[in-house]
Design a protein that fits this description.
The chain is of the alpha/beta class. Helix content is about 25%, strand content about 25%. Strand 8, helix 8 and strand 9 form a beta-alpha-beta unit. Bound molecules: beta-D-galactopyranose (GAL).
Length: about 400
């Protein structure tokens, strides 16, 4: 009876073509990995991917949690006479199966990119009307992750198009994370749960703090503001995706890079690095592998953090964690240093409660505080702390 009731409830809340989020065990915490687009655009190759796989291991990034190595647009050139998608033979001379084997041999997972329309954004073949054959091909090659874009899809219904590929992936027999990328255009947080495990919520991130492009590209702070109210829609197996990381690509200061990474963790965002891992500085690696900040992102409770105080340029953001503590960001988006305070009631603690405050970037306990905590925050920077109530 109880099983029947649950089944009926699931049927009521899960739209057709979808499975209950998390039921497949995929992406129970936000996916972590690396994607070629932000740094390399169309300049992808077998050599780059192998060297990046090697770097994920050698730098310790794999062991810090970065798992999925994803080739974005431009790996594909045409379809053969049976309709099977063909990888660029010059750039990927050993073929995708061999590359996936190499990546798996490093203890990593392998991802590809396609598009729901007739062509990708860079005019390579899209998957429209080839969903089943593409999903089978990916499964044969050993693909573990598919990013699925929305160019050249005029007249198509977003939900139907993504549901079709989501179903094809499930029917391929291989567990493939499905990353929906329609740039938030049809509010996927309202329909994509159970179709894919993550959905882009904004236009393309740019390697800048607050720039904006006429075609829709945007800087880090604009993205933070756009996803701020989407916290009710995130959870294990269904994540808002504020796009890939720009840490290490040169356009952000060290403080801005730290702020960018801190916010992605607080927002329970997928952490897909997008820089050249073969040549990155120690400063970049230290940001990308800060395990205490990564632990906030990967917290098993899976709650997306939210803004709890807005004092003009100074803000407080909070994410409840599974152990009863809270991750807190004191944010200064202004251009002058400022004092930012968090009163306990903003983060759900009683005013008289005592809590241990730990600085997640200095990796040190600051001390025990009652009622509130305050810190000086440099411009375009954060102080990120963990606040743990004490008995
Ligand atoms: C965009 C997408 C980017 C990247 C690019 C490739 O639509 O948002 O993340 O995948 O296409 O052409």
């Amino acid at each position: 009876m109880r099983v029947l009731l649950v089944a009926c409830l699931v049927a009521l809340v899960v739209p057709s073509g979808a499975a209950p989020a998390g039921a497949d065990g995929l992406a129970l915490t936000p996916p972590m990995g690396w994607n070629s687009w932000n740094r390399f655009g169309c300049d992808v190759s077998e050599k780059l991917m192998k060297e990046t796989a090697d770097a994920l291991v050698a730098t310790g990034m794999r062991d810090a949690g970065y798992q999925y190595l994803v080739i974005d647009d431009c790996w594909q050139v045409r379809r053969d006479d049976k309709g099977v998608i063909v990888a660029d033979p010059e750039r990927f001379p050993s073929g995708m199966k061999a590359l996936a084997d190499y990546v798996h041999g490093k203890g990593l997972r392998f991802g590809l990119y396609s598009d729901a329309g007739t062509g990708t954004c860079q005019k390579r073949p899209g998957s429209k009307d080839h969903e089943a054959i593409d999903a089978r091909t990916y499964a044969d090659w050993g693909v573990d992750y598919l990013k699925y874009d929305w160019c050249n899809a005029e007249g198509q219904d977003t939900r139907d198009s993504y549901a079709r590929m989501g179903r094809a992936l499930r029917e391929s027999g291989r567990a493939i994370v499905f990353s929906i990328c329609e740039w938030g255009s049809t509010r996927p947080w309202l329909w994509a749960q159970g179709i894919g495990q993550l959905w882009r919520a904004t236009g393309d991130i740019q390697d800048c703090w607050d720039c904006g492009k006429s075609w829709g590209g945007m800087g880090v702070v604009h993205i933070i503001d756009l996803v701020a109210d989407l916290h009710p829609y995130a959870g294990p197996g269904h994540w808002n995706d504020p796009d890939m990381l720009e840490v290490g690509n040169g356009g952000l200061s060290a403080a801005e890079s730290r702020a960018h990474f801190s916010f992605w963790a607080l927002l329970a965002a997928p952490l897909m690095a997008g820089n050249d891992l073969r040549t990155m500085s120690k400063e970049t690696l230290d940001i990308l592998t800060n395990r205490e900040v990564i632990a906030v992102d990967q917290d098993p409770l899976g709650m997306q953090g939210r803004k709890v105080r807005d004092n003009g340029p100074q803000e407080v953001w909070m994410k409840p964690l599974g152990d009863g503590s809270r991750a807190v960001i004191l944010f200064n988006r202004g251009t002058e240093p400022g004092d930012v305070a968090v009163p306990w009631e903003d983060v759900g603690l009683a005013p008289g409660e005592k809590a241990l405050v730990r600085d997640l970037w200095r990796k040190a306990d600051i001390g025990s505080f009652t009622g509130r905590f305050q810190a000086k925050v440099p411009p375009h920077d954060v102080v990120m702390v963990k606040v743990s109530p004490q008995p």
